[in-house]
Amino acid sequence: xxxxxxxxxIRGGLTLVDSTARIIIASIDLPVVGVGAKERIDVHAIRCxxxxxxxxxxxxxxAQAMPKQGASSGFKYGRAVGAIEAVIALCGVPxxxxxxxxxxxxxxxxxxxKEASRQRALQLFxxxxxxxxxxxxxxxxxxxxxxxxxxxxx
Length: 154
Known about the structure:
Nucleotidyltransferase, domain 5
């Protein structure tokens, strides 16, 4: 089964995992348009990526307000998550929302250490080193970890 994991937000990632072969098929940073306060998720680019890769299922981390996050950045984050969920729905891909604590517990991770997530993804998918090589690839790595959590019914 081909599952796309989604680490939502402006600096997140999309990663398509083949759960049978335990490999990463494709991984990208979430595409954006605009700059600064006008920066938005590029829904057209996400739609094209999803249509190209044709996942069987999608799993996205549940959006929530972050401590000490300002109203403006919280609104921007929520807007990004809604845009991503809408694209997935309009592409006809079944979507599951997963709690951050659930996928992190499954992978033995604690807190918000992005580098630990990237290192765990490299352990699970060593052939994908090139896709996850940079420290800033943590969004792709977290998306891969989200996609690799078994979901009931899928």
